Each structure stands twice: as structure tokens, then as C-alpha cells.
Amino acid sequence: MGSVAASGGYWLASSADDIYVDNCSVVGSIGVISSGFGAHVFLSRQGIERRVHTAGKSKSMMDPFQPEKEEDVARLNRGGHDPHKVYAAYHRAVHHANGRPTVILAKTVKGYGMGEAGEGQNITHQQKKMGEKALKEFRDRFDLPISDERIGEAPFYHPGEDSEEVRYLKARREELGGYLPQRQGRCEPLEIPPLETFKSLLEGTGDRAVSTTMAFVRLLQTLVRDKTIGQRVVPIVPDEARTFGMEGMFRQLGIYSPVGQRYNPEDSEQLAFYKEDIRGQILEEGITEAGAMSSWIAAATSYANHGVPLLPFYIFYSMFGFQRVGDLAWAAGDMRARGFLLGGTAGRTTLNGEGLQHEDGHSHVMAATFPNCRSYDATFAYEIAVIVHHGLKAMYVDNEDHYYYLTLENENYPHPAMPEGVEEGIVRGLYPYALADKPGAAHVRLVGCGAIFREILAAREMLEAEWDCSVDVWAAPSFTELARDGQDCARQALLEDGAPPPSYVARCLGEREGPVVAASDYVKAWPEMIRAYVPAPYTTLGTDGFGRSDTREALRDFFEVDRRWIALAALRALVDSGAKPPELLAKARKNLGIPADHPNPRHR
Fold first, then answer.
1. CB-based contact 601:558 (threshold 8 Å)
2. One domain, residues 500 and 552
3. Domain co-membership, 577 together with 534
4. How far apart (Å, rounded) are the C-alpha atoms in residues 169 and 131?
5. pTM for this structure?
6. Which of 239, 404, 407, 470 has a beta carbon 3.0–4.6 Å from 287's, enabling a disulfide?
7. Beta partners for 151?
8. 228 and 347 share one domain
9. How far is Cα 45 from Cα 24, in angstroms, rounded to an integer?
10. Are 575 and 585 in contact (CB under 8 A)?
11. Residues 536, 516 contacting (CB under 8 angstroms)
């Protein structure tokens, strides 16, 4: 091993190569620094790296004749690992005079203290165990009083209850109000208004055609007027308040701004103008789903963080929800958020003209992966009222750690009054909407929800009038809740002797014979979630594939989910079960106008 001095810099020598200091890299475990005066000092590779990367070209830092230079350099910890620097930074931030936000940048090293076992290396995350040599180096580096005999056990070291360190930590925790993590998960129950409060939604709209989005806005307006909980409601929109018909709430509630209205809005001539107010109740976040979701999380966890339960309703394009902020939705579940997420203009065929950018056909599949997210695709106004009312009671009276996701469409149609006794079925995810008076020889059950449910009703009429079938129609606001119930029953069967408990789906659909056909405005994977629990031949229709700009009618034919395709699927199922002759299918395709070579939408 040798060394050499060079003008303008220093050379490093190792067992492998000579490397110039300016290159900022070191090879080998032992190196030499030359001061340029013929004297050498041997340093560990770690010591050389500290000097090279810390000092750069500074001769004073690189001078080996400076006393205790190696120890001095070793004490130059990166800021994130130096308790004195961290303390000083936070002390300055806390006592910042002008009150402006403060950012603290703490530079750290991945795997700090692990040495050759993983310090500063990407393998740190996969390192499950440190060898005895690495443990000894760790002990020596941090001056831990653990003997060589015990080091292989990787024993836990505690300095003692009366030690200066432990007394300091306890004192700081007392000043901060207690130990962390600590969470007050229960709060005083709220007085939730009765379901009859939403009477206008329960009674239907008569001949008036409205969307489920407008039905929800009407419900929200009813809630904010409630004298008990109205002030706790937090409407949140990322930009599309007018798209969702919420502009009428601008003047009623105001849009929160800490500085009030400081400009003349473009819509100032309109009755429902963009009104900002210091006391505003609406959070309008601009075009930032992440910002709006973060505001929702803050309000949805206020019950635990501040002991003040709030009722946040965040409404957004459903395509821009779980797909864009899924990580935040998962964090919300992990933090036990309570509130409502509303996916507007939902479904893959309901927002014609916008193409695949807005046409959501998979958010319910994504939402199903969040354990405490209860998701529903409502068809009628009364379903929305029942689901929201149930959610309010579950979260704010019974203290259940769930949050709710409801998809809302922008398609206008009349809404019927709520049938008697369907509240439990709505919440559980399945209820009988229209049952045949007497099942015939060719009997089929149609199941669906949301934007496609009216296509199911139309298919029922076609099957009964043109194909001599008897039809039961079941509304399924949540295939997710049905699947979870089935999974719970299957799990219970593993833990108990005797016959397994029947799932809710099996109990509902097991009373009559006949195949089952399910259709929705979402991909087939969503209704497929309950296949194992359906006690009959089961066919699913869905909107697999990308969206496109076209009319609703054309899109539903393209995705094979309109009334004609539902009727054909039902006839196919009846043929397979032996209730109809096979030659019926060719005639049905011709009469329904469905070509045998219709392109597969998943491949287009």
C-alpha cells in the first residue's frame, strides 16, 4: 500500500486502487490520506469517507496532524442522527416569533448504525437479523454496556428507571400530556335524526326525473338544516360543486376561507355565486383530490383527535377517488376515519361524452379491498336515505370504525317510494324489489344495482311479455357487503361443528328455483364476488374494458349490459338449465338485434 501527493488535491490509496479525493469515493477497508508533506495516517474506510465527503477540498479538515481529528469528524453526525441538532431545530421552530410555518429538513442514513450489515444500503429493509460481528460493532459505536458473551442474544438494553435518560423522557411525555400512541376512540354519541327526516326521499319523486346525485344533495341540505347536528356537517368538494348541483349551498353555508371574500367572483351576477366566508362550512379545495381527501381525513378523525365528531361528506368524480388517492383512502381506514365518500357521475356508461377519463367501472372493486370501507351503488333516492342514516347511526351512535362509499349517477329518472320492510336488506346489500306472483316452468332471478338496474327492470318486461318467463328482480346495492357476509359464514363454519351457517345471499335466493343473472355498471369482478354463495347457476354481466365517448344506449350495447343483453343472458341460463329449448337462442339473438360476431368490449 502506498500514497502519493498531488497538486490541487489529495490521493487516496487502498489495497485495490489509488483514488483521487475529488472523486469522492473510497475502495477497500483501509486507506491512507497523504497531507502532501510526506507523512501518512492510516484511517478506516469509514473515517476516510467522513473526511472526503465532509471536508471536500478543505486542507484543514484533511490535515492528519490535527489532534483527535478522527474523533472530531466522527462526531459530525448527519443532522437527523444528532440529538443536539434535532433538539435545536425543533426548539427554534417552536419559538419562531412570527408564527410562520417551519420546515425541518433532517438528513439521515438508511439503516443508521448497522455498519456493514446494511447501513446506507438498500438491503436494509430486507435485513432480518444482524450477525454477531455487526452487533459488536453496533455496541461499540453506541457505547452500550453489553458483554461479548451476551451480544449474540441481541439483548434489550434499558439504562434503568432512575437513569438521566429515562427521567428525561418521562418528563417530556408528561409535558406533552401523556404517552403515545394514545387514542380516544370513543366519543359522546350524537343525536341522529330519525329516518323519517328524509321523508321526501322515502316517498319517491313521482313523475319527476332526478339523478341519485340530486337526491343526495337534497339529503345533505336536510342534514345541514338540522338544529342538533347541522353545524357538524362538513361538505367537501375538490372543484366540481356545480357539476354535482351543490352551488345552492354556497350562499346557505359559505365556502370556508380564513381571510374571507377578497375578490369579485366571475359568477357574482348569479343567485348562487361563489361566496367565501371566514365562517364558511363548505371546504372547496380546488382541483386537488389529494388535498380534498386530506381535509376529509382530518374531519373524519376529529372525533378521536379532538373529541369533536364531525360528519364529513366528500363528493368527487368516482373515477378520481380510489384510483387516484387509494393510498390516502387506505390511511383513512388505518386511522379509523368515520365519514362518507361520494363518487359522483359513477358507472362506466352513465357519463356519456367524456370517454375513458371519467367512466368509472372499477371503483367498487378497489373499495372492496379496504377492510372498513362499506360501499354501495344505490339506484333510488330511498336507498341513499337508508344507507346514509344507517351510517350516521353506526359511526356516531354505535361508535363503529367504518367509513362509507356511495356511488351516485347523473342520469335522471323517476324514483319510486320505498317498499315496505326493505331497510335491513338495503344495508346488508340485497332485497327483493319485484317478485313474480307464481314462479313458472321457466323462472329466472335478475339481480343488479345503480345505473343498470332500470335495464334489469326493462329486461324483466321483455322476458315476461315476449319469452314466456317468470322473473324475480332483486336489488343489490352492495355486492361487497354480500361477499363479506359470505366470507364470515365460511369462516364460522371452520370454527364450529355441524352444518355451516347459510350466507345472507343463500337465504335470500334459496327460497325459489331458477338461474340467477347479475348485471351492474361495473366490471364483472364485482358481482363475481358472491358466486360461491349463490345457490343456483350464476351469470354475471359487467363493463369490462375501457370507456369511450358515446350515448348511454350505445355504451350499454357496447359493454353488453343493456336490457337486450340481460334478456339474452337469462334465456341462455334457462336453456342451460333445461327450462328452454336450445333452438330458442338463435331466434332470441335475431329478435334482440344481437349479432353473433359482436366484438368483445374487453379487447377493444
1. yes
2. yes
3. yes
4. 30
5. 0.77
6. 239
7. none
8. yes
9. 12
10. yes
11. yes
